[in-house]
Structure formats: structure tokens, C-alpha cells
Amino acid sequence: MAQPVVGVLALQGDVREHLLALAEQDVVARPVRRPEELAEVHGLVLPGGESTTMSRLLDTFELLEPLRDRVAEGLPVYGSCAGMILLASEVLDGREGQHTLGAIDMVVRRNAFGRQVDSFEADLDFAGLGPGGHEGTAPLRAVFIRAPWVESLGDRVEVLARVPETPAAGPAAGRVVAVRQGNALATAFHPELLAVDGRDGRVHELFVRTVREA
User: Is 98 exposed, middle or buried (0-12, 13-18, 19+ CB in 10 A)?
Assistant: First the structure.
């Protein structure tokens, strides 16, 4: 695939940052608000924001069922923070009627970090970002903003990163914050915030590689 088209769900959240991060990866980056725009993309990013608002707007813009269909067909998708919640099979502490896409067999807790830490940064060991062929783990700075975490996951889900088990991490120590299943990737944190200023675009690079290989 010479130059894939990668969309960013543009209903709410940090859409601009993801579009800018994707543009650094030699893809055509486009906002997606309508079913006909969704039909044209080779991959889709679900940005951070407010998961219940995005869930409601998917209905309003008649995107929920078309998106579920494309995800079921194998469309590569990446969700950051609220996007991770949308990709889950189940949400704890969610709002009544909150939709999920079920792309990743995991249970996530909405705003898990918010009650203790709100916003913070941490250094993670992230799998798949190693040198050369990108195998192995590599350090990654992660920005968490009222983030979810993974409470449980199925056997087919690959864990890419956990919060370091240090005293400073408190109840978040060891929690899963990045996962992958098939063509679906999710992080509890916001790599677009570091990618947009040129500091680190490796998570978007990882996703674009998934898009190209799909």
C-alpha cells in the first residue's frame, strides 16, 4: 500500500493532534464524521476525549453500526484513552447506554486514574517498539489524563505496556495500559501529545505499520 488513508474519528476529542501525528507517518490523514468518509479509510484512530459523548455522537452521526461492521471486517483501529474505552468489550463505571465496539476482548475501568492521580506522566516499557525490526521492548514516555486502565483481558489480547510497579504508582502499579488484538491497538495514554511536537511518534508508527500490513 503506497500511501494509505488513515482517518481520525472527528466527533469530539483531540482530533487535530492525531491528524498531525499521522501526517508525519507518510499517510493521508483525514477527519471522519460521516459513513461515506469511514468507507474510504484503510485505518481509523479513535481519539482521546469523553467516551460517553463520543458514544452518543456515534449514534447521532449514524456511524455506530457502519463502524462496528468495518471493525468486524478487520479494519485496523487504534484508540487512545477514550478510544480505548470504545474498543473494549465491557466498561466498568460507564454511563447507561454507553456503546462499545468490542474490538478487543478486555474489560476497562473508565476514569480509573482520575480518582487518584488525574493527570501525570510515566516512563513505560512498551513492547513492539524495539530497534531494528521493532521487536522487543523500548522505553516510552506516556501522558495520562483521567485515563482508563484494563481490569481484565482475554487470552488473545497481547499486553504491550503496564504501569511500572513502583511505590509512586500507588494503586496503578502493574496495571495494563496498552494492548493489541489482531488489527486493534489501544493505549490508556495520549501518545499524540508527544508526537505532535516531534518528540516521539513511535506509537503512531506502530499503528500505521499495522494499516500497511492489513
Answer: middle
